[in-house]
Write a structure and sequence with these properties.
mainly beta
Amino acid sequence: QLQLVESGGGLVQPGGSLRLSCAASGFTLDDYVIGWFRQAPGKEREGVSCISSSGGDTDYADSVKGRFTISRDNAKNTVYLQMNSLKPEDTAVYYCAVFSFWSCKGMKYWGKGTLVTVSS
């Protein structure tokens, strides 16, 4: 069974950091573009970051550029999102997804998400 499981979310104060993980089971991530997107209550889904199958190319939304870093460890079948200098507006459910094309076009599979809350 193909599955993506996100973890690492939680409550953090403004300016803090979190590292999200996206673990795959039932298939290998090696061949796929992987991305993170988020959805806050009452807001539209927003693409956050994208990484190529090799990890050599990355892309970020302007709202997170310079604060978030996406990476992947194909040996562990896992993709990460390091989030620093978090702001209250980063509060959302974060999802990872498998895409068919660069840069995160053609979503194929996605996980159930992990909640990130940035608040003092």
